[in-house]
TrEMBL record:
SUPFAM superfamilies: Dimeric alpha+beta barrel (SSF54909), Winged helix' DNA-binding domain (SSF46785). This is Lrp/AsnC family transcriptional regulator. InterPro entries: ArsR-like_HTH, AsnC-type_HTH_dom, Dimeric_a/b-barrel, Tscrpt_reg_AsnC-like, Tscrpt_reg_AsnC/Lrp_C, WH-like_DNA-bd_sf, WH_DNA-bd_sf. It comes from Devosia honganensis. Keywords: DNA-binding, Transcription, Transcription regulation. Transmembrane segments: none annotated.
Length: 153
């Protein structure tokens, strides 16, 4: 296991902020040469601290104007029921996140939709096609107040 030092944490913060910068620019930001910076990034990747790189897309610009948080309760919490639900939810592209929760519901889903008709279609799909669904409770997001993409380091 790689022990993170202050430079590693600075580098992770910089990568979260903008991973498209060159290794030279990242190195300058954290006080390393380009080659030392490259070695550190490679070590952070190899040890699983960096799980990937991605582009953040604008959902509204791409036509997804609505976001919902959906609580799902299952008829059973058996291992087989949980596995069946989790496998089925993987095939629904509008489901951006699925969390197994402790509390009132079994799962919390974050979904995006283009409009009300799109949400109705998705709601029916969730109710009818997902195995073991006993109840669904939907909350529409009016506006995102804070969306943190990076982890506090």
């Amino acid at each position: 296991m790689l022990q993170l030092d202050g430079t590693d944490r600075k580098l992770l913060r910089e990568l979260q902020r903008d991973s498209r910068r060159s290794v030279q620019v990242l190195g300058e930001a954290v006080g390393l040469s380009a080659s030392a910076c490259h070695r550190r990034i490679r070590a952070l990747e190899d040890h699983g601290y960096i799980s990937g790189y991605r582009a953040d897309l604008d959902a509204a610009r791409l036509g997804y104007a609505m976001q919902f948080f959906i609580e799902v309760g299952l008829t059973s919490q058996s291992e087989a029921a949980l596995e069946a639900f989790e496998a089925a939810v993987q095939d629904i592209p509008e489901v951006l996140e699925c969390h197994l929760t402790a509390g009132h519901s079994d799962y919390l889903l974050r979904v995006i939709c283009r409009d009300h008709e799109d949400f109705e279609r998705l709601h029916r799909r969730l109710s009818a096609r997902l195995p073991g669904v006993a109840r669904i409770h939907s909350n529409m997001s009016i506006r995102t107040v804070k969306a943190r993409m990076g982890l506090p380091l």
